[in-house]
Specification:
Layout lengths: L6 H19 L3 E2 L5 E2 L3 H11 L1 H18 L6 H7 L1 H6 L10 H26 L10 H34 L3 H6 L1
Antiparallel strand pairs: 1-2
Helix pairs in contact: 1-2, 1-3, 2-3, 2-7, 6-7
Amino acid sequence: MNSFRDTRVLTEAALAVALAFVLGLIKVFQMPLGGSVSLEMVPLVLLALRQGPVVGITAGAVYGVLQLIVSPFIVHPVQVLFDYPLPFAALGLAGFFHPTVRGAVVGTVVAVLARFACHFVSGVVFFASYAPEGWNPLVYSAAYNLAYLVPSAVIALVAVIALLKALDSARPSSRQLAAR
């Protein structure tokens, strides 16, 4: 298992958090009460797939805290946990899967579902009053959060698979290594 004691892993994690931050600023769509369609999940999921869940969860939590510092939307202290460090830490769950196409698909889906669960709970508990009249808070929270997480997940899935394939093709084959 990789550790933050390895300078290369620490550097990769720091770069993933920084890249997630920059990509999070480029928004395709912004929801009124938080959440957006962007590429911010790509470097965090890719990091988790490459370095494992401990590194992925830690980097995701750091990114969540950074998001909290830069653009906070706070209604309750517990809500802060469910909307910032926990959902982005959940993206590190992708690290439980192998960095293959199949592992990336399953890992990304699991990670985004875990992120959704955090935002869903926050929506039901802390944002139910924002639901349109006659809407069940469960339905409202699910609809609101899925509206930006589904497109973000699809974009992340395509990007992560493309990047994994590019990284794999950039590695020298065993024949190329033997010829050296």
